[in-house]
Design goal:
The protein is of the alpha/beta class. The protein has one domain: Mannitol-specific EII, Chain A (3-Layer(aba) Sandwich). Helix content is 45%, strand content 27%. InterPro entries: PTrfase/Anion_transptr, PTS_EIIA_type-2_dom, PTS_Nitro_regul, PTS_SugarTrans_NitroReg.
Amino acid sequence: MELSKILQPECTTCATPGSKKKVLELISDLAAVQYPTLTSQEIFESLLAREKMGSTGIGNGIAIPHGRLTNINQPVAVLIKCEEPIAFDSIDKQPVDILFALLVPADQCEQHLSTLSNMAEKLNDKQVLKQLRKTQDESELYQVITQ
């Protein structure tokens, strides 16, 4: 799936959330704008449930939190660049500064896995990661990730 179809500019932000919990709350708040039928609390609980199974911090300063929701009909993504890296229980024990969150309909597991895999591959590209970290604002961040 083309990234610009699931990631809207208003779900792309540069922030200083301070903690894993705060960044998951921020993701939930941003995603709730895309799905007014959902509360940010429902989204937060979905993300938290996944994190309890194991951290989505994949290393190299990257985390890909994700969750499944029964009352959405298409995926929604959120991209956050943390101005100050945060502890995220990553596999390499390093703090995280780039988070790509994905929320998908519970009945679209295959598409969900494919999108996560594609994003992980893109974020593991050293050039893309370097460009993301050099961005100065949300607009630039959105341009880099969707190009």
